[in-house]
Give the backbone structure.
Amino acid sequence: MKKLDWYILKKILVTFVFVVGMFEVIICVLDYADKNDDFIKNELGWDMIWQYYITFIPFIAGLLTPITVFIATVFVTANMAAKTEIVAILASGVSFRRMMYPYLMAAVMIGVASFYLNSYVIPDANKFRLEFELQYLKDPFYNTDKHIHLKIAEKDSLEDYIYMYRYDVRRDVGQSVTLEKIKGTELIAKITARQIEWNEDAKNWSLKRWQKREIQEQGEVITEGASLDTLLNLSPEDFGNKERMWETMTMTELNNYIRLQRSRGADDVHIFQIEEYIRYMSPFTVIILMAIGVIVAARKSRQGTGFQIALGFVISFAFIITFILARAIAEAGSMNEVLAIWIPNIIFGGVAALLYRTVPR
């Protein structure tokens, strides 16, 4: 690397950290003002509030990384253009493409760090943050799902399914339960019960007022009773609040959960797949937005640096809107999820390619 590369790389990274810090301060102040009444109502001490914001800060940093990278790039490049540094670099024989190398290096460094943090570090911090919000800042959760049907086991061509009319998360009790063991297309055994209850001490389930039908060669064998303890590949957490649950999962946990939910035939598995796709997509977003930032701000503008920074904010908000629409399309299932999530990168990647043709050589 040459001195020019170190000069640009240092300015980009320092400015990026500054922009992230500035946004963090503004957002945390606004967030505290919004949640202060809840803090007072729940009589929370400063130690709890401080611990909450320790986990809130990295979450916001990870969320805003692509936008803060873009703004930092526009700010640095616009200042260099205003001081005629860009003209001097190009006049010295350095091509515009070569000048972009340190920007690309910074984008790759930030993108890789962002991917690691969003995949392994921030999810662990989010476990406390979301639990805190559910306990102190939001209304209690009630499971409103009805007609729950899940595959809970599969072994040696045998598949176990459970059906229940609904599940009460406050008491960990399910109503109108059916357990089925199926081999191929044949029903091997079936248990019906009025209720199923979770036994926290024994870590098992208890069926109340149950009846079991076993289909054997000589005919059906029917048994029944008042209570029956059983072990199932199921836990009360499977019926808990799944709102933003994907934010608390590391990449390994997310992949394992997706495989589990697929095996159960769950309806919400696509939400977690979308989160996985977004994590893989985000580092490329950093590179694309940084490229656009360099190209937009490289020319010395008559309107001054302020105009270029304002233009950078406009493009940032355009990207945010496009990303929100793309995620909504993916969650609605209107088109292929991978393609929908990549719509912002495809659009802005095309914009970057078109703008690149207009840059000074």
